Amino acid sequence: MKWFWLVLVIVLSGCSGVPEGLHPVSGFNINQYLGRWYEIARLDHSFERGLVNVMADYRKLPDGRVEVLNRGFSPVKNAWQDAKGVARFQGASDIGSLEVSFFWPFYGAYNVLVLDPAYRYAMVAGPNRGYLWILARESRLDQATLDRLVAKAKALGFATDSLIYVEQGPVSQQ
C-alpha cells in the first residue's frame, strides 16, 4: 500500500509546475485578476467537453487563497455544470503561477503566460502544453487580439490548430 501512495504522489506532482521553457508573467496582481473571466478558446479536455458559455469567477478568501468557480452550459444535458475549487500561489505572489484544486488534496497548475496590462485578457496554461485557455473579461474578444494570442500560443509550442472557440451566447446566466 505504501508503494501505491508513493507512485500516486510522484504522478500527481507532475500536475503542478510550468510547461518546460515557458515563464508565467511577473508583476501579477491577484486583486486585479479577481472577478469574472469568459473562456474564449481552449484545448479540449474531458472535463469541459461540449460546454458552451464557459466562465470562471475568482474571489479572494480570508486566508489569502482564491475561490474558483468554473461554470459552463451543457446543451446535451440542457443544464449548467459547476466546479468549485481553491487556488494558491506556487511561489511568489507577484508571479502568475498558481495551482488550483477542485478535488483536495490534488492540485493542477494554472500559469498565466500572457496578461493584458489592463487585465482585459489572459492566456493560461496548465503544467504542460496540453492545457491552454484564452480568457477575456468580456464574452467576446476582438479578432485582432485573438489572432495575436493564438499566434503567440503557436510560437510557444501549443497545438493551436486544435483550439476550440467557445460559444458564448444568450443562455440564461443564472
TrEMBL record:
GO terms for molecular function: lipid binding. Keywords: Cell outer membrane, Lipid-binding, Lipoprotein, Membrane, Palmitate. Transmembrane segments: none annotated. GO terms for biological process: response to stress. A lipid is attached at C15 (S-diacylglycerol cysteine). A lipid is attached at C15 (N-palmitoyl cysteine). One of its GO terms (cellular component) is cell outer membrane. Residues 29-168 form the Lipocalin/cytosolic fatty-acid binding domain. PROSITE patterns: LIPOCALIN (PS00213), PROKAR_LIPOPROTEIN (PS51257). Pfam families: Lipocalin_2 (PF08212). It is found in: Cell outer membrane. SUPFAM superfamilies: Lipocalins. Belongs to the calycin superfamily. Lipocalin family. Homodimer. Involved in the storage or transport of lipids necessary for membrane maintenance under stressful conditions. Displays a binding preference for lysophospholipids. PANTHER family: APOLIPOPROTEIN D. This is Outer membrane lipoprotein Blc. It comes from Sulfurirhabdus autotrophica.
